[in-house]
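hey can u check if this looks right to u? its 287 residues, i copy pasted from the old doc so theres a chance i mangled smth
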Amino acid sequence: MLYDFGAVCVTYQIPLSGPFSDLLQLSEGLYDNEVLLADSLRLVEELLAGISPAIARPQISSFYEDYVIFHVRELDDPEAHRRLLAENQLLVAQVLRADHELSSQQEIQDALLCEISYGAEDLTLVDWVAALVFAKAVDDTRAVLEFGQVQLLELRHLDHQLDASLDRCYEALSRSTEKRFVLPAAGGGDIREIGRLQVESAVLFEGINNALKLLGDQYLARLYEQIAQRYHLDAWDESILRKLRTLDSIYTKIEDAHSSARLEFLEWIVIVLIGLELIVPFLVKRF
């Protein structure tokens, strides 16, 4: 799945059968699986090579998110998933966290916190490492879970990008202060660079947050709310907005500094011209 704001999702499907307890070993084996990570990177590189003419500044980021969705399509009876959750809370939490050593009651409750269902026969549990879905059809649920991971990944990438941008902007602000009394036009490149960073970051941020529309589907909207709560997407949004405001503040300060420098430069030109106008007549008379 290729997203127009620059993210790619590679999905692997593994048919499952057997006792539920076997999922714990599988969950731990899939967590940060080097084979799958290497294969997904190879697939993304091949995709990038094929569509490179349509991409501006193609680059593969070092950021990635891996996520497992366990889909249980059929059960013995409609209430089996409720009994499973009630009788095996520790095992379910360990599967969701991919950690057989998990034993804290607080961690167990936290792992099972984000629970949502549409009918009596379905149930979705959302956690950091994995999700557990009991339902016959899972395409829409999987798409929303997938987008939640992509959004978290893009927000992490954008946050890192803004940190680097702010470091460059602080340096540009220091250079602007040092060059203020040298050349009024010095640092114009810094202003353009900061402006470009502002626009690119704002466009990417808007693209991420406007990519998913869940109008008219209350269940998927509630599922997305659970995902946003689990991944603390609101906190990521606020952090990025704060850094965008800081970037805008630095841009304003540099622009104001250069405007003041240009005005001072023009004032000195006026003073010099007035001085020449007063001195030249005396020099002409003398010579």
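Residues 166 and 246 are 8 Å apart (CA to CA).
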